[in-house]
Design a protein that fits this description.
mainly beta; Porin; eight-stranded antiparallel β-barrel; 11 strands
């Protein structure tokens, strides 16, 4: 009976007796970091007007963000498509694009801990013709140690009075 009593006492209090003591640093929440910079590698689906219906163009981007709170922020997101291509607009109308650069100013919101919704106006800069656009996107931040994160992202760019594209990418970010 003494052995059973001892085992029950050990089971009921074992976590207290043998658990590691947490330091005060582990009890405190890390301070909120307002700035985030990320490098994004992606592929942009551009309408080709041929088979296959879309051309996937590689792209690199840099995102600079300022978070007012853990939920709300804004950012400047830039992307450069790393190839020249032709977009078919109408039956006989084509638009040539040479290494276009897209810059957007976006409102960012985190409705859930790691999910980021983004939307805002932007501009596509290219030597033949510059185009206005609107972007909406979704990102999921996998938080890593030291303020780093990895974030898969997908966004849709609607160029006003022209063609639309969508992009999938993977970003590596740092908060400071």
């Amino acid at each position: 009976m003494k052995k059973i009593t001892f085992l029950l006492m050990l089971l009921l209090t074992g976590h207290w007796l043998f658990g590691q003591e947490k330091t005060t640093a582990e009890h405190e929440e890390a301070p909120f970091k307002n700035f985030r910079i990320a490098v994004v590698m992606g592929h942009t689906a551009v309408p080709s007007g041929e088979k296959p219906a879309h051309l996937f163009v590689p792209s690199w981007g840099v995102d600079a963000e300022y978070w007012v709170s853990p939920v709300w922020g804004f950012g400047i997101h830039t992307d450069m498509e790393l190839q020249s291509f032709v977009v078919k607009l109408a039956e006989a109308e084509h638009l040539e694009r040479e290494y276009p650069v897209v810059a957007t100013f976006e409102l960012l919101v985190k409705p859930l801990k790691n999910i980021v919704l983004q939307a805002g106006p932007g501009y596509e800069f290219e030597k033949n013709e510059n185009l206005k656009l609107l972007r909406v996107g979704l990102e999921y931040e996998f938080e890593l140690h030291g303020g780093w994160d990895i974030s898969p992202t997908v966004f849709y760019d609607a160029r006003l009075d022209s063609f639309d594209t969508w992009t999938i990418g993977l970003g590596i970010g740092k908060r400071f």
